Amino acid sequence: MSKLKIFIAIFVVIALGFGFYKSGLISKIAKKDTGKKIGTLISGDKKFSFPSTYHIKSVPYYGEKNWCWGSSALMLLMDAGLTDEEIQNARAVIKNEGRGGPPDMFIGFQEYGLVDNVRIAYSKNYVEEYADFYNSQLLVSPEKQTILFDNQEQAFDYLKKLISSDVLAMIVVHNGNHFVIATGYDDNYVYTNDPGWDNGYEYKIDAAPDLKQRRIAIDDFLKEWSISGQEKEIGGKIGFPGDYGIIWLVE
Q1: How would you write the pLDDT of the chain (251 residues) with one tens digit per residue?
Q2: What is the CA radius of gyration of the chain?
Q3: Coil, strand, or helix at residue 167?
């Protein structure tokens, strides 16, 4: 091949590359190939349908003082059909093999082959360090198991959709320092099984007389449904990745 032909070929390649760059194709491919796969972002205009009031009936309860995240995880496992013996085994495994922080709940999910069934959700404005830990150390397929919310209104609508579908969901409240199970909602309150209330229930629901729940005023709930005050890494503890935290199991 003559030098002229080689020069023309090089020029054509450079010209095509520049054209692809200007069109955005190269940047899109680069982001697809090298970008981190965190999860599915639900756009802000996505709407969900759900009734104005709903309470899940026959919700299991497990309460252990100063162990809100572990107790809440065990309630998810109880709801998944584990026996009393299996629940006690899961508790022992989490306590014996864990480091003393919320991520230890995944030890319990792993013990019964349910890690792939875990789904978590939080704000798109997440803490990258904590999200990376969840994605690399805890989840099997982060891009499939994680949902990101555009805003709090959308997150609350999604939570109500889960509840009204009889899906038990753990929520991260008290500005990131407490884990409870969401069991219902109405126009004024969110209802929870709260392990921090001494096996206790503060409020009896007329719609489900066999249950007694703690209720949180919606305004208060929305104010504290964040991680703004959660403890940083202390003694190996890892914080939850983002605001509007939800953890649940799928079948």
Answers
A1: 554 444 444 343 334 333 332 222 222 222 223 345 688 998 777 788 899 999 998 889 898 888 999 999 999 999 999 999 999 999 999 999 998 899 999 999 999 999 999 999 999 999 999 999 999 999 999 999 999 999 999 999 999 999 999 999 999 999 999 999 999 999 999 999 988 765 444 555 555 555 557 889 999 999 999 999 887 654 457 899 999 999 999 99
A2: 23
A3: coil
Domain boundaries, the chain: 1-35, 37-249
37-249 fold: Cathepsin B; Chain A (3.90.70)
Q: Which regions of the chain does DSSP assign to beta strands (E)? A: 40-42, 54-55, 118-123, 146-149, 169-173, 178-185, 189-193, 203-204, 212-217, 246-249
**Residue in the block written with tokens 């703690």:** 214
Place of tokens 């069991």: 183
Q: Is the dihedral of CA 18, 22, 24, 25 positive or negative?
A: negative
Q: Contact, 70 vs 104, CB < 8 A?
A: yes
